[in-house]
Amino acid sequence: MRALAAKLTLATVSVALLGGPAHAQVGRDAAGVPGRFVADTEIVAAPGGAVVGMGRNGQRVTINCQAADRNWWHLNAPEAAGWVWQPGQVLREYGTPEPRIC
What we know:
The protein is globular, with a radius of gyration of 19 Å. The protein has a domain at about 35-90: SH3 type barrels, CATH 2.30.30. The chain is α+β, with helices and mostly antiparallel strands. The strands form two sheets. It has a five-stranded antiparallel β-sheet, with helices on one face. It is built from two helices and seven strands, in the order ααβββββββ. It comes from Allokutzneria albata. This is SH3 domain-containing protein.
């Protein structure tokens, strides 16, 4: 029994040193955050850039990340992937985490 406990302790320490929980965090962030458009809005190639698509009210999206100023969100929508001016345009699903900074 002591040998098993020692092996489990060693395995736990090894996983902690190798960053086991961090890998799960990276995977979750890479998947994005679910959301939806709450207004019809343009999707642009870059903040202030050319229009690449149009998001429709109620349409589901995946929010990949947000700009450091937290005003622009990069997302994947059915029509296009690009940037959206977030305030009043996109809403995260209830209980989801804040999108990471790009």
